[in-house]
Design brief:
By secondary structure, the protein is mostly helical. It is built from six helices and two strands, in the order H-H-H-E-H-E-H-H.
Length: 286
């Protein structure tokens, strides 16, 4: 009985393995068929403006050879053979696909980088310049600067907060300048390059530059927001304290004025004598 159960279990595992292998083989065949079909379509449309005549001939020869193999042997070939031909075709086709994708998406990517420079980067750079210290302040120096920047009631802040160091301001200004120069040069190269060769810059390079710049801007921007929020809270607290101090001062002035009031004696007319007090009659002796 145990032997029978073991044999049945092994049979089920073999059946599952065979079923799984059949699924993998069908998937590999579908991928190869799809790649052959899309490549033939790309040769006629997408690749035409981004490949040389020699490249197209070599690509066509490869696709025809693999397509012929699949028609003659692929339907009965093992999965390893199908995957081998798929890999060979992808290695030949993928570089041209990346080239077409780069020329298609590079203009939009460069425009996004320019928008980042002209809007977000410039705005944060201006804020940083207006709220920078030429050197790192000590705690006492910062408190003093903060107190000086907190104006009296009804007045606006007249000085920036020492949020950023001079080195940070200069580093961001340099990064923005270098990125702007690189953007201008890249656009010039892209406008004059041969579209039948790889572009002068990879799409990934543009994305990386944008991510680096955006990360810096987010860091400095969030840092400024936190400081401005803290400043606003301190400013509101000081306004309340100033109002309370003014109220107490007014109360003290009112009390002092009340204590200094003098009650004056009634005035008499000039030349008249004050009224005489009535005489008291002596009491009779007993």
């Amino acid at each position: 009985m145990a032997t029978l159960l073991k044999s049945s279990s092994e049979g089920l595992r073999e059946y599952d393995a065979a079923d799984n292998e059949r699924d993998l083989l069908n998937e590999a065949k579908n991928n190869l068929e799809r790649t052959i079909f899309t490549t033939l379509s790309d040769i006629e449309i997408a690749f035409d403006n981004h490949t040389t005549e020699a490249e197209l001939e070599a690509l066509s020869a490869t696709i025809n050879k693999i397509s012929q193999w699949y028609d003659e042997e692929g339907h009965y070939a093992p999965r390893s053979a199908v995957e081998e031909h798929l890999t060979r075709l992808q290695e030949v086709v993928d570089p041209y696909k990346r080239r077409v994708q780069a020329f298609t998406e590079l203009p939009a990517a460069l425009t996004k980088l320019e928008e980042l420079l002209t809007s977000k980067a410039q705005a944060i750079s201006i804020v940083m310049s207006a709220n920078s210290a030429h050197e790192i302040l000590t705690a006492s120096e910062f408190v003093q600067a903060l107190n000086e920047s907190l104006a009296n009631e009804g007045e606006e802040k007249k000085a920036g907060l020492p949020i950023y160091t001079h080195e940070e301001v200069e580093a961001l200004r340099k990064l923005i300048s270098e990125t702007q120069t690189w953007l201008t040069e890249t656009r010039s190269l892209l406008a004059t390059c041969d579209h039948r060769a790889d572009p002068p810059v990879r799409l990934a390079t543009v994305t990386e530059r944008m991510e680096v710049l955006n990360a810096k801007l987010d860091y400095f921007g969030h840092r400024g927001e936190n400081w401005f929020t803290t400043y606003k809270r301190l400013f509101d607290i000081k306004k309340v304290l100033l109002l309370e101090a003014a109220r107490k001062a007014d109360a003290v002035d009112d009390t002092t004025a009340g204590n200094d009031t003098v009650i004056e004696a009634p005035q008499t007319e000039e030349g008249s004598s004050p009224p005489e007090e009535p005489e008291t009659a002596p009491e009779p002796e007993s």
